[in-house]
Structure formats: C-alpha cells, structure tokens
Write a structure and sequence with these properties.
- This protein has 2 domains: 232 residues, P-loop containing nucleotide triphosphate hydrolases (Rossmann fold, 3-Layer(aba) Sandwich), CATH 3.40.50; 90 residues, CobW-like, C-terminal domain (Hypothetical Protein Yjia, Chain: A,domain 2, 2-Layer Sandwich), CATH 3.30.1220.
- The protein is 29% helix and 23% strand.
- The protein has 11 helices and 12 strands.
- The longest helix has 15 residues.
- It is globular, with a radius of gyration of 21 Å.
- The two termini are 39 Å apart.
C-alpha cells in the first residue's frame, strides 16, 4: 500500500511571519518537492504571488494552489478537499504538502477534514505549526497590529467579531504540535527564555517550542514530525466553540523588517557514534530521557544490535521514539550512529555521554 503523503498545516496571526517561514523552507528544501495550498481571503492574492514568484526549482508555479473562497474551515467540502485531491491525483505527486491558513483561521476544522473518506487514505497531517510574533506576544498583544486585524475582521459579516484575540490565540496553541516564536531577534535573552517557558507550560505534553528569526527553521525540524494529527482531535479540541475562525490575510509586516540573509545559527546538529547496543527497548528509554533532559528536537540514525544482522533505524521527534529493522549492515563497521538536532547551546558532552553509556 502506498504511504500517505504528509501535510503540514502552518497557522498563526496576521504578521507573525508564516509566509517568510514558508519561503525560507522552500529555499532550503534540499530537493524535496513541496506543494503549497494557500488560504487567501478577499481579493488580495499577495501571498500566492510572493511564493509563485520565488523562482525556487522545487516549487514550480503549478505547485502553488490558492483557495480564494475565504476561510478554509467554511469551504472544506467545495473548495479544500477538491484542491487537495487535484494535488494528490497528479502524475508526480508532491513529497510534502504545506497548507498556510490565513490569519485567524482556526486549524482544528481543517485538521478534522483530513478524516474525510475522499482523502483519509492518501494524506495525513504531519504536524500543525503555529507561528507567533514573539515581540507582540511578550508585550501582551498577540498580533503586531491588532487594529489591522480587527479592521479586516469587520469587513466580513460571516465572521465572529466578538471573540477576543486572546481566545483565538489559545485555540491556535491548543492545536499546535510545534510553536515557532518568530522575530526572536527583537527579544532579550531573558524575554526569549520566559516566553518559551510560558508557551511550553501552556501546551500539551510533547509540543515543541522553538525560537526563530525571519522564520529560519531547518527543514528537518519543520517537516517530518509524523504526528498524524487528524487521529488525535480529542487532545487538540477548540477551547472556545465559536464557529469561527476569523480570517485575515497575512502579508503585512513580514518581509519588511530584515533582509533574507540569515542562517540557522539558532540551531545545531552533531553526530554521536557508539558501539553495538544490547537491548533496543532499554536504549529507546535512554533516548527518551536524554531528549527530555536536554530539550532535543530531533534524533535520528541507526544502531547495531548485538546478534542481529539488520541495522535498527531510530527516529525520534520530541518524546516519541520509533525504531524498526530496515536493512542488513553493509561492509562498513557495525556501529551505532545518531544525529542530534536542537536549538543552539546543546550540552554535547552530556548528551554524548548519556547516549554512549
């Protein structure tokens, strides 16, 4: 049976930096064929134009699809599902689908739509990424320009005009598998640490909170979470049962603060090698503990297990560790080799010691 195509949902308020994050991801996709579904609202198709004009080989014009009927949540049947089916039916299907929800659309109804029979066997929600404006949230505003959000909200009488932004923000947090504190360069080190701790405390177990500048996240951190969010709606239900999900465009304030010359200096990765392991189950427990202690985002690689000709592939995202035997070792040495990825400042010596014990 063909594996399901993973889809990542990117949500967040007006001006948080979703488009910048997606553009950075495309520019650093490493040959991965990524298709985009962009939820626009009204007649301002700016995000789509920005991304279509980005000239990135892994993202051609036909790989960007725009929903122009307003909020995804309201148009699942007549707009979103057929658009997704068109992507899936292509002769050359994408490796990954990224869906950018517009401004204040709630992610929950969209994630729920992946259970529709027409698509449920073909695509799965790899993870929900909520982007927040670190500076605004630290100052208690939730969005860079609250007046602009409310002005746009009032233009459409179908939208809920009463729900405070703070409640919509909580719903986006409740659905997230990863929270990206963007514009973190505008915060002091203490502010970054305090906001990270606060958002982590308010989130479900296992939700990753990372900081970024200009949406510069490594692709292997952003994609490949393997959550299967649509099967886990109970844990991420709306806290506030307002229909709905405001809907704003997201093309203010994102590209005008800085240029795009930025690296991944906020992240680091290194390799740990060690001899064969004797017990895969207890080694998985060690990995889980090391990840929790050192706040590691990803850990992947393979292990040599005593007495087994096959190598054990290991993939860990946050607290979840998956392992399976995939292929015989080749002529190289039988050793365990793991790549550790996290925010800069990992205690490499302690992590290496724990994994080598």
């Amino acid at each position: 049976m063909q594996a399901k195509i993973p889809a990542t949902v990117v949500t967040g308020f007006l001006g948080a930096g979703k488009t910048t994050l997606i553009r950075h991801m495309l520019e650093n996709a490493g040959g991965k064929r990524i298709a985009l579904i962009i939820n626009e609202f009204g007649d301002l198709g700016v995000d789509g134009d920005i991304l279509k004009g980005c000239g990135i080989e892994t993202c051609s014009e036909e790989d960007v699809m725009e929903l122009s009927n307003g909020c995804i949540c309201c148009t699942v049947a007549e707009d979103f599902i057929p658009t997704l089916q068109k992507l899936l039916d292509r002769e050359r299907a994408p490796d990954h689908i990224v869906i950018e929800t517009s401004g204040l659309a709630l992610p929950q109804p969209l994630v729920r739509a992946f259970n529709w029979p027409e698509i449920s066997t073909r695509v799965t929600v790899d993870g929900v990424v909520t982007v927040v404006d670190g500076k605004a949230v630290t100052e208690g505003r939730f969005a860079h320009d609250v007046a602009a959000v409310d002005a746009q909200r009032k233009l459409d009488e179908n939208l809920d005009h009463e729900t405070p932004l703070s409640e919509l923000f909580e719903d986006q947090m409740a659905c997230a598998d990863m929270i990206v504190i963007n514009k973190s360069d505008l915060l002091t080190e203490d502010e970054r640490a305090a906001l990270t701790a606060r958002l982590r405390a308010d989130s479900r177990e296992g939700v990753q909170v990372v900081t970024a500048t200009m949406g510069a996240l490594p692709v292997e951190v952003l994609l490949g979470q393997g959550i299967g969010a649509e099967a886990d709606m109970e844990a991420r239900h709306e806290l506030h049962h307002h229909h709905d999900h405001d809907d704003e465009d997201d093309h203010h304030d994102e590209d005008d603060d800085h240029d795009h010359d930025h690296g991944h200096d906020a992240f680091e990765s290194f390799v740990v090698t060690r001899p064969e392991i004797s017990d895969p189950a207890s080694f998985a427990k060690v990995i889980t503990e090391v990840i929790r202690t050192h706040d590691i985002l990803r850990l992947k690689g393979f292990a040599a297990v005593e007495g087994k000709p096959m190598r054990l592939t290991i993939q860990a995202v946050g607290p979840r560790v998956d392992s399976y035997f995939d292929q015989p070792f080749g002529k190289g040495p039988r050793q365990t080799r793991l790549v550790v990825i996290g925010q800069a400042g990992l205690d490499r010596a302690a992590i290496t010691a724990a994994l080598s014990a």
